[in-house]
Amino acid sequence: MSELLIRGRVLTFVKEPEGIDDTASYRFFEDGAVLVRNGKVAGVGAHAEVAKQAGDGVKVADHRPHLVLPGLIDTHLHFPQTQAIASYGAQLLEWLNTYIFVEEQKFKAPEHAAFIAGRFMDELLANGTTTAVAYCSVHPESVDAFFNAAEARNMRMVGGKVMMDRNAPEALTDMPEKGYEETKRLIAKWHGRGRAHYAISPRFAITSTPGQMEMSRALVAEHPDCYVQTHLSENKDEIAFATSLYPQAKDYTDIYARYDLLGRKTLLGHCIHLSDREISVLAETGAVGVFCPTSNLFLGSGLFDRDRFDRLGARYSVATDVGAGTSFSMLETMDEAYKVLHLQGQRLSPLNSFYMMTLGNARALDLEHCIGSLHVGADADIVVLDSRAKPAMELRMQVASSLTEELFILQTMGDDRSVAEVYVAGKPMKCGPRGASAPAP
Ligand code: GUN
Ligand code: ZN
Fold first, then answer.
1. From the CB of residue 441, how many other CB atoms can be counted at a distance below 10 Å?
2. For 33, which of 47, 182, 353, 405 could close a Cys bridge (C-beta 3.0–4.6 Å)?
């Protein structure tokens, strides 16, 4: 039996905060601890209580005065775009054609895919992200590289092969049957293996013919426990193009609805320019709109209207969307989320930010039983955050007087430097017990 006692200022959410002072939404232990046994949370609470549950000679990782939270969750990004972050000057369709469809061709080579997959996982961990939902490239080799790199680190990851059969270079297209067969083979190989989850991934309506959408429908019907990920209503030119390709559809959302692609396991990147009707369809089907603030600002796409999602009862999550997103850091992402909402007169409290990065995103994935909060029985995926990681943060913290103020400083000023440690199933992955570097892939 392996045991570890992680000591620090423990914070974990139990429900969505209803405002800046909603102390009932979280549990916080100023001198707290998490007892990890065989990769799971075996105890959580005040250090004095939790320490009593530990066996004699238990190893202790003392992270005081840092915060100890559940590992962060990123619900949308593209692993083959790791080296395409910061590609200059274009909006969505031009950016895809100029940079992304060139970059993704490199992932046919298994060595390249394996190299980037390893670096990608390490970058997630360096930023405190322990679970992510990622697009791979069209090549099955890229999916093997992705899940192999996750498995080597024992990370709970969601991913899938992009399917595209038009409006992309030939080297990046699969035919409907081929996309279907490859996806089925990858699901059989990876879905449910260790901590892997598969996401059926038609890229978006522009790059899939009706034939490929039919195949996507069949895949979803045959594998209802897999996720589905695609993009919806990110950019005005995209919307005009997509709806012109599917003239029978009422609107962009209806394209996916007509192929039965909307359900509780469906993650729809962006969802910026939706009508009330479309958001209501998401609410009825349980599909999740994914808010990607750094990406939406970087590509000049628009502003996600969270309050309308709340009013119409639709689910949403938050994500980096690397490589249109400009950072792997969920802290930096929430900093931009705050600003995107602020511009629309909407408030994002620090409690809500930290809820969204953890339990909120876990709920969006229906994975709250195992990740997103530190309850007994949860996976011991844990991040340790240092609110004084930079001199300017240290100075600002000298005059901070509450937990919520500290959280807001972390989100506004923090980045990977604020991640003091990250645990995957109880194993330290960033600094290690003696400050060692991350394990080799
Ligand atoms: N829409 C279709 N593909 C993509 C992509 O790779 N990134 C973003 N931001 N939007 C997309
Ligand atoms: Zn995307």
1. 16
2. 47
Q: Where in the chain is the domain with CATH 2.30.40.10?
A: 3-71+371-428
Distance CA 233, CA 377 (A): 38
State in Å: Cα 48 to ligand 2 middle.
45
78 touches ligand 1 (CB under 6 Å)? yes
Kindly report the protein residue whose alpha carbon is nearest to atom 1 of ligand 1. 231
Q: What is the dihedral of CA 235, 237, 242, 247, to 10 degrees?
A: 130
pLDDT one-digit tens code per residue, 217-227: 999 999 999 99
Q: How far is the CA of 350 from the centre of ligand 1 (A)?
A: 28
CA 116 to chain centre: 18
Any atom of ligand 1 within 6 Å of the Cβ of 321: yes
Ligand 1 atom nearest residue 81's Cα: 6
96 CA to centre of ligand 1 in angstroms:
7
What average pLDDT does this structure show over 407-419?
98
- Alpha-carbon distances of 159 from 143, 147, 206, 221, 339, rounded to whole Å: 7, 8, 21, 18, 29
Ligand nearest the Cα of residue 97 is 1
Cβ partners under 8 Å of residue 411, min gap 6: 331, 334, 335, 338, 350, 353, 354
381 with 371: CB under 8 angstroms? yes
Strand partners, 289: 268, 316
Q: Which of ligand 1's atoms lies nearest the C-alpha of 301?
A: 9
Token duo for residue 226: 């897999």
Considering every ligand atom shown, identify the ligand nearest to the alpha carbon of residue 134 and give its number: 2
3-class DSSP state for residue 3? strand
436 pLDDT more than 80: no
- Where are the domain boundaries for CATH 3.20.20.140 in the chain? 72-328
State the closest ligand 1 atom to the C-alpha of 206, by its place in the atom list counted from 1. Answer: 2
Question: 247: which 2 tokens?
Answer: 């003239």
> CATH classification of 3-71+371-428 is 2.60.120.10, yes or no?
no
CATH of domain 72-328: 3.20.20.140
CA 81 – ligand 2 centroid, Å = 10
Q: What is the pLDDT of residues 129-159, one digit of tens each?
A: 999 999 999 999 999 999 999 999 999 999 9
DSSP state of 302: -
Please report which confidence band the pLDDT of residue 433 belongs to, taking 50, 70 and 90 as the band edges.
Answer: low
